[in-house]
Amino acid sequence: MTGATVRVRLPTHLRALARIDGEVRLEVAGPLTTRSVLDALEARYPGLRGTIRDAGTLERRPFVRFFACEEDLSLEPPDAPLPAAVGTGAEPLLIVGAMAGG
Amino acid sequence: MSGVRVLVGTRKGAFVLSADGTRERWDVAGPLFAGWEIYHMTGSPADPDRLYASQTSGWFGQQIQRSQDGGASWEQVSNRFDYDGVPGTHQWYDGTPHPWEFARVWHLEPSPTDPDMVYAGVEDAALFRTRDGGKEWEELPGLRGHGSGPKWQPGAGGMCLHTILLDPADPQRIFVAISAAGAFRSDDGGETWQAINRGLRSDGIPDPDAEVGHCVHRIAMHPSRPDVLFMQKHWDVMRSDDAGDSWHEISGDLPSDFGFPIAVHPHEPDTAYVVPITSDSYHFPPDGRLRVYRTRTGGGDWEPLTEGLPQQHCYVNVLRDAMAVDSLETPGIYFGTTGGQVYASADAGDSWTPIVRDLPAVLSVEVQTLP
């Protein structure tokens, strides 16, 4: 899928950091992948650079997970297509802090 | 009337405690950055309204926050700390080589004269500096590039650069301390460094008096006498009279010479404070009695300060960056505990009262003396 309005749900700490209320709606151009969604998210909220993926290598931070449509997408390649339901806005992309206590 | 502002970093946010010069009634503000670890929050000596905070998370990484109005509002200014060049390796806990990996900023040390210049001590140990108020940080690679770098190893808390002392008499002279590498000094503004650990002895390393490998917990200096340094090492309280070229032990009659913080009276260079902790295995006060010890003779002779502190069933710790002194005529001494108490003494340690009792575990305490 190319070009879409995507819903992204962020963990509490990142919403507080970027001063975001509720879900984020992003216009994403080109192929719909975790990379393109994160590019759009960081373009709108530059303060989130480095918090979800490494600012230099762009690799996912170890304690961050990506879920959508009840599937764990964390280990998918960043250029793998996201589920169609994310592209239609029926389902959000969930960015989640790994469940590690605290 | 003068006042004080106590800046408290905790495991779950930051708090600002304010009082007038009597230091009797306190206003408590916070949590700021709720849920995040605040390893350190401090103010610029050149502009007391300029504050910096190290906000960090195992999940989401490092942030530097800055306030220009004394903590009323904050802006996220940076989260990039890139080592200079190829980082190389240090020693891991098991003795094997381990690549240098940035984890967090432990300590921020603002310049005494420029509110936009701040030094940052980080884990894995390195020294960074900003000249633009925290937006861009550059490593001073000469420290990590000291020939001994591959021998440095992490202490239990990580391989952190936790102490930065800027010599007020010589802008080119900087002292730092790293757990567990030891103390280092630069005499050229941070370009080159030498290890200053002669006289230290540590049983946890193969060569007890090696050039590096010592777990220094904290160093303190009186600004009027910058060649005299006081050190709380993993074990042993030490003193140097020659800017770190040599050290001698001043533990004297302390009930334990293990501990974390050490602080110096603002007007009496030979008066210093420590908080003895039972041992490296038992991170709580001896006999469950929380006692600050004070020397008025530059070490060796220590008196317990107990009035107002719990003298039974107390099993908290006081971490290395969690003690501070104000500079009022009769100085205030402040420290925070892993149990969430922040204690204050408005009479140089003779008596203590808790400002707050139930914060998250306290990581750092700083105090600003305000006009």
Q: What is the percentage of strand-forming residues of chain A?
A: 25-35%
Shape of chain B: globular
Which blocks of ≥5 consecutive residues of chain A have pLDDT under 50?
none
Instruction: Tell me roughly what share of residues is in helical segments of chain A.
Output: 10-25%
Total beta-strand segments of chain B: 30
Tell me, rounded to a whole number, the average pLDDT of chain B. Answer: 97
Structural class assignment of chain A: alpha+beta
Order of helices and strands of chain A: EHEHEEHE
Q: What percentage of the residues of chain B does DSSP assign to strands (E)?
A: 35-45%
* Most extensive protein-chain contact, per-chain counts: A-B, 20 and 15 residues
- CATH class identity of chain A: Alpha Beta
Tally of domains of chain A: 1
Give the strand order of the largest sheet of chain A, numbering strands 1, 2, ... along the chain. 2-1-5-3-4
Q: Number of DSSP helices of chain B?
A: 1
CATH homology superfamily of chain B: YVTN repeat-like/Quinoprotein amine dehydrogenase
According to CATH, the homologous superfamily of chain A is Beta-grasp domain
Multimeric state: heterodimer
- Stretches of chain B where pLDDT is under 50 for at least 5 consecutive residues are none
